[in-house]
């Protein structure tokens, strides 16, 4: 079960601070969207705005990598002025790897951030980059299939 263990276990995306980024030499963050940065299908709150502003100030590129539709990703990304890709087929590495190559993101300075073991953490591991797991935001609004996955995740985490 250790296979699914992320490199970093955080409470919330805002635990990734300026200092944290410097300490871990992070220049690019590929991030899941729903329940990682915002409640399912919502635009994100003021904490997120502040966090994105901090990343920009630090020259850290944030790239959304979601399995949700490109339309959802576009609606989310536009107001924040960030780059994002939908239909990423996580946990497959192919789409994320393709975008990393296009953006010239280096393996050593890129992390994958997400709230799910079987899509996000696994994807990061398949790509071969460090992974950071956060607690899901707005769990009460999640679709039923995700609620089911959470139960399995809980079982795996209890065996780390
Ligand atoms: Mg998610």
TrEMBL record:
Coiled coil: none annotated. Keywords: Hydrolase. This is Hydrolase. GO terms for molecular function: phosphatidylglycerophosphatase activity. It comes from the Bacteria. Gene3D superfamilies: HAD superfamily/HAD-like. InterPro entries: HAD-like_sf, HAD-SF_hydro_IIIA, HAD_2, HAD_sf, PGPP1/Gep4.
């Amino acid at each position: 079960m250790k296979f699914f263990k992320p490199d970093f276990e955080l409470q919330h995306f805002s635990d990734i601070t300026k200092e944290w980024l410097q300490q871990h030499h992070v220049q690019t963050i590929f991030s899941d969207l729903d329940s990682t940065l915002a409640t399912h299908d919502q635009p994100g709150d003021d904490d997120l705005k502040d966090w994105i502003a901090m990343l920009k100030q630090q020259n850290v590129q944030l790239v959304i990598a979601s399995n949700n539709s490109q339309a959802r990703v576009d609606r989310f990304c536009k107001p924040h002025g960030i780059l994002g890709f939908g239909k990423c087929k996580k946990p497959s590495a192919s789409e994320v790897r393709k975008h990393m190559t296009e953006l010239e993101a280096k393996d050593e300075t890129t992390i994958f951030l997400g709230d799910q073991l079987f899509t996000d953490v696994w994807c990061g591991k398949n790509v071969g980059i460090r992974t950071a797991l956060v607690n899901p935001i707005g769990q009460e609004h999640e679709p039923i299939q995700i609620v089911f996955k959470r139960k399995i995740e809980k079982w795996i985490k209890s065996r780390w």
